Amino acid sequence: MPSPVRLAENGLLSAALGNLTLKGYSMDLLCKDNPLDLYDPDWPMLPAQQGCRPTRFSYSVDKVPGIAIDSLVSGGCVIEGATVDHCVLSENVYVGPASIVQDSIIFPGATIGARCRLKRVILSEDCHVPDGSVVGIDTRLDRLSFEVSDGGVALVNNESLQRQAMSQKAVA
């Protein structure tokens, strides 16, 4: 599967993901009746993942399996004892043990630590989500650190995660 970045470069992102802005947040790629059929044999796919490792779903040390449900997972991803539900994961994404990621778009190279909970998040490229982070569960709290759409979708990058960590230290 091409990454959302590659789709954008080819002018297909607006059809596939509704421009991938907070106002246009959409999970259209996951719809079974999406007009952009990634499995159409007449539409050649030129993967940008040359030399990319295969995707791996692995058990955590606690023997919990890594699973993805109703999601698109690109090459090089590792889902280690985590649950990914209704998401688009670009290449080389890591999801750590006991994490739950739902209704989200994760860009290339992002890492999600252990015991994280992400829901309705757009996670930027090469972003590192620290262990135990929670985003997308409480919109009121999310607005303190992240840009959040009227529909409750949080745009997360490394800078906004630093703001979240600082505000949590101030409260503690």
Provide structural commentary.
With 172 residues, this protein is of the alpha/beta class. The chain is 17% helix and 23% strand. The strands form 3 sheets. A 6-stranded mixed sheet has the order 3-6-9-12-16-15. The longest helix has 14 residues, at 158-171. Residues 1-25 have low confidence and may be disordered.
SSE topology string: HHEEEEEEEEEEEEEEHEEH
Shape by Cα distribution: globular
Q: Helical amount among residues, as a percent range?
A: 10-25%
Name the average pLDDT.
81
Question: Strand-residue fraction?
Answer: 15-25%
Radius of gyration, in angstroms, nearest whole number = 16 Å
Give me the number of helical elements.
Answer: 4
Uncertain regions: pLDDT < 50 for 5+ in a row? 1-25
- The chain-level structural class is alpha/beta
Determine the N-to-C terminus distance: 43 Å
Strand order of the largest sheet: 3-6-9-12-16-15
SS elements, strand count: 16
Supply database-style keywords.
172 residues, globular, 17% helix, 4 helices, five-stranded parallel β-sheet, six-stranded mixed β-sheet, single chain, alpha/beta
